[in-house]
């Protein structure tokens, strides 16, 4: 079993910054890709940023150049540095890990952390 716990959300003014962190525990050796997703009220959950175990990252077009994802495999953490925040970044942010086992792969999610950007 893998558990994910996020931290770092909060309220910030437009143009500000926040840093989200996610700590994995449990069977962390089975974790492959990790990432951050977000879900705004009335909208579907969307990918924000992904990072592979080797450090290759991918971003949603809406956050490119503003957000940076990083990963520390030794500490089993993944972080999201969010700069130049906009009101449209307001959402619940979820940490995600793809866990691989003999039966295949599955997604594990954190509980989510609220990010609110005021205009």
Description:
By secondary structure, the chain is mainly β. It is built from no helices and eleven strands. The protein has strands at residues 2-7, 10-13, 18-26, 31-39, 46-51, 57-59, 67-72, 77-82, 91-101, 104-109, 113-118. Strands 2, 4, 5, 6, 9, 10 and 11 form a seven-stranded mixed beta sheet that branches.
Query: What proportion of the residues is helical, as a percent range?
Result: under 10%
- Distance between the first and last residues' Cα: 40 Å
Rg measurement, Å: 14 Å
Kindly estimate the percentage of residues that lie in beta strands according to DSSP: over 45%
Mean pLDDT: 96
Structural class: mainly beta
Short description:
By secondary structure, this protein is an all-beta fold. The protein is built from no helices and eleven strands.
Brief descriptors of the model:
about 120 residues; mainly beta; 7-stranded mixed beta sheet; 4-stranded antiparallel beta sheet; about 0% helix; about 60% strand; elongated
Helix-strand blueprint:
Blueprint (H helix, E strand, L loop, with lengths): L1 E6 L2 E4 L4 E9 L4 E9 L6 E6 L5 E3 L7 E6 L4 E6 L8 E11 L2 E6 L3 E6 L1
Parallel strand pairs: 2-11
Antiparallel strand pairs: 1-3, 3-8, 4-5, 4-9, 5-6, 7-8, 9-10, 9-11
């Amino acid at each position: 079993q893998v558990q994910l716990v996020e931290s770092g959300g909060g309220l910030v003014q437009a143009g500000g910054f926040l840093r989200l962190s996610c700590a994995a525990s449990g069977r962390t050796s089975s974790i492959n890709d990790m990432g951050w997703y977000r879900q705004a009220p009335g909208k579907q959950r969307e990918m924000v940023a992904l990072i592979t175990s080797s450090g290759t990252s991918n971003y949603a077009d809406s956050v490119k150049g503003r957000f940076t994802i990083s990963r520390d495999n030794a500490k089993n953490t993944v972080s999201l540095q969010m700069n130049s925040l906009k009101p449209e970044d307001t959402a619940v942010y979820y940490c995600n890990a793809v866990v691989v086992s003999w039966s295949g792969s599955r997604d594990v999610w954190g509980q989510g952390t609220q990010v609110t950007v005021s205009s």
